[in-house]
Fold this sequence. Notes:
About 65% of the residues lie in helices and about 0% in strands. It is mainly α and about 130 residues long. Bound molecules: iron/sulfur cluster. Iron/sulfur cluster (SF4) binds near residues 81, 84 and 101.
Amino acid sequence: MSVSVTPAEHADHLADRAARDHARAADALRVDQPWRSGAACQGQGLVMDPPAEEVKAAQELGVERLLWRSAKELCWSCGVYDRCQAWVLSLPKEADVTGVCGGMTEGERRRVRRKRAAESAAQEENRESA
Ligand code: SF4
């Protein structure tokens, strides 16, 4: 038996999923972080965390940066940007949110965490050898 899904139903499904995924992160933010009430990304799940199919299509077309740009522009205009960025970078990589958060993509946050860990290890080594 085959199940037919109309393009509109498929679009609704993708929208629901992206909104849910980002809402989950937003819920966690709201619980722990009262400043989240000033977030510019509320209700912008599809912009901050587009469906994987959309990201893949943008990668294939070589326009992934444009896809993330609209999300980053929201962050750059956000009144709680600094607090959000400090918060998201304080999370261990396993607990990171999906999509753009704190003005950075997941890959950019991974690189910042790696760099900080390397700097911290180098400082520790210097202290031990002093
Ligand atoms: S900095 Fe970006 S992700 Fe963070 S609360 Fe503001 S708009 Fe949302």
